[in-house]
Specification:
By secondary structure, the chain is of the alpha/beta class. The protein is built from 13 helices and twelve strands. The strands form two sheets. The chain has a six-stranded parallel sheet, with helices on both faces. A six-stranded mixed sheet has the order 7-6-8-9-10-12, sandwiched between helices. α5 (75-88) packs across α13 (297-313), α8 (165-178) crosses α9 and α10 crosses α11.
Length: 336
């Protein structure tokens, strides 16, 4: 493999000092125009490329931003990342992506890795609202700004990009009620995720508002995967509890439940209506198409990226919470 051309190689080729070569390459005003042009021409001819890592270390920055996502199985993270890239790439920033795999210890290792890479900032969707709080604080105290999106650390101060999980859940459950549903199941996400608690509160508030008694047995605490959704639906059918609709924590859980119900020849929405929260492209790829709260995922990414750029350029930039509007998308899974 051919070795990369260095400043020393240019120095030998042009019989100039390495300091003169270096200053010519950085457009130093004290270097004569003729010398600069000669150096740049030789650099092009020999295929010299600057060592960006060395340059960035000299300047005290890496021109990179770390992004940590809980999972890459669903389109959720990819749509957010698309928005992040739209903002950061034109500004000359590389995006380093790491997946926590819904494991706080993996998230911790990823955060430590970002520190080692000396990223200029970190954008993160946390997998557990409590476990790594001290590490978030430690990283920010070292001068690496952070922006949290979607899943946040509730007790942690910092810049955040979220939607109103509580109110949008109220509206979604109200939609089910307005279609005549009264025995509404909630597939409750893990308690260590702040969004899960907010969506559950919205579910209960809608029932209370419409004077429908809250039944704890209609709340199924579950995980985050398609299989978890299927298992929750199986548990419901085996319990023989009467239910006419499901409001799921995420599209993933809802689709898992829908798949199992259809396997059991239960008609959707005629016998059981299904609604959820997330609004990924998956909601339009299933049959029937899924009624969901559609989060503005690309906008979430763009907003988080703009905030991290502000925090990188201005260390005194104040933390703030941006609440984006999510849309209720009514589709065939809840309406005949």
């Amino acid at each position: 493999m051919k070795k990369p051309v260095t400043i020393k190689d240019l120095s030998k080729h042009l019989l100039l000092s390495t300091s003169t070569i270096s200053r010519a390459l950085t457009n130093d005003k004290n270097i004569r125009k003729e010398t600069r042009e000669k150096v740049l021409q030789a650099a092009q001819e020999l295929g010299y490329k600057p060592n960006l890592t060395a340059v960035n270390l000299k300047l005290g920055r890496s021109n990179s931003v770390g992004v940590i996502v809980p999972e890459m199985i669903t389109p959720f993270a990819s749509q957010v990342l698309e928005g992040i890239q739209e903002i950061l790439w034109p500004e000359g920033y590389r995006v380093i992506i790491a997946q926590s795999e819904e494991d706080p210890q993996t998230e911790k290792k990823n955060l430590q890795l970002m520190e080692q890479f000396q990223v200029d900032g970190i954008i993160i969707c946390v997998c557990d609202q409590a476990v790594n709080q001290s590490l978030y604080l430690q990283i920010q105290q070292k001068g690496i700004p952070m922006v949290f999106y979607d899943r946040i650390s509730k007790e942690m101060e910092g810049s955040q990009v979220i939607v109103d999980d509580y109110m949008k859940s109220v509206f979604m459950v109200e939609h089910l009620i307005q279609t005549g549903r009264k025995n509404i199941v909630h597939l409750h996400g893990p308690s260590y995720i702040n969004n899960s608690a907010e969506r559950f509160k919205g579910y209960k508030k809608a029932l209370e508002k419409h004077k429908i008694p809250y039944s704890p047995e209609l709340v199924i605490k579950t995980g985050l995967t398609f299989d978890d959704g299927m298992n929750a639906a199986r548990q419901l059918l085996e319990s023989n509890l009467p239910f006419d609709s499901i409001f799921a924590f995420t599209d993933t859980l809802a689709i898992g439940a829908m798949n199992y119900l259809r396997e059991q020849n239960i008609k959707i929405p005629e016998q059981v209506a299904v609604a959820s929260f997330s609004g990924t492209t998956l909601s339009t790829l299933v049959y029937p198409q899924l009624t969901t709260v559609e989060q503005p995922l690309k906008e979430m990414g763009r907003t988080a990226a703009e905030m991290i750029l502000n925090k990188i350029s201005d260390k005194s930039y104040e933390d703030k919470t941006v609440v984006l509007d999510a849309k209720i998308k009514i589709r065939a899974s809840t309406t005949v």
